[in-house]
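Recap slide: Prostaglandin E receptor 2b (subtype EP2), sequence and predicted structure.
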Amino acid sequence: MDFLFLTFIPSGQPITSAVMFSAGVVGNIMALVLLEVRRRRTSPSLYHVLVTALLMTDLLGSVSVSPVVLSAYAQGKTLVGMSANAEVCSYFGFNMTFLSLSTLAILCVMALERYLSIGHPYFYERHLSKRCGYITIALIYLACVIFCIAPFLGFGEYVQYCPGTWCFLDMSHAEVKGQVYIGFYASFILIVTSTTVVCNIAVLLLLVMMYRRRVSAHSASRSMTEEVEHLLPLATITVVFICCTLPLVLRVYVNLTGSHEERHAADLRALRLLSFHSILNPWVFIILRPSLLKILWRKLHKPQESTLMRGKTLNSAQNSTGCHLQSNTTI
């Protein structure tokens, strides 16, 4: 069945889309509320600006895309059939492409921010501020919008996918311009994801080195805790995003290097995974919120601290006993 021009939904239930929509909206709102509460207790930072932008982008994705799918199921029409010239399909594809690019770009900037704050603190304090974060977010949005309007100018195309409630870039384009466009999209995702992973690994190595240097002095545990609070959610979200985007990148490269035979089931699985990251991101921040991390950090360090205290107590007791015996011998 050719789903490109299908106007009526052949089958399917809106329950999955409704659950995804509810989970995305509720999760992002809860995460934003918790972030605002934390911001009022502490001074706002560049990291908080970037996290807020990430959550707002995910919330925008849930609000702008999911209601369209629910409306399609309610009318029994596909995205192409909901408008005369497939405007709804183009709108849906534009949003999916924009949100995937902007979310990944923000994650990459967050990873770079963490690396600079730990690896190059002097440069970070001197040159980076919240204003840089606002400018960076604006530039990311602008660049993503410019890229996503290219299909309206003849580079690439937004097409409908099975079962008629999904629209995205044509991953099996036969024309050279379309292949270059979708190839650039996949390559950009691959490069930015690799940069994010490298930055996170570098931050992790720096934290391990800091921990080893400071364990012997029993100091700076507070700063270590704060860095772990920032790194753990970022690393988790990066893993989630890789799992959600890598299948789509692989599908694009397979279509570019192989035949142009359409595989609707594989394309649909890749698109569904792509939409999951905006739902999972806020729940990562909710579960790995700083208060919970502090509790876990204290519990992990309590056995070590108690062991150190017992060791100090035994040493002091042995020293006092030795001094007492020595004084008796002298007498």
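The first strand starts at residue 158 and ends at 161.
The chain has a mean pLDDT of 76.
(End of recap.)
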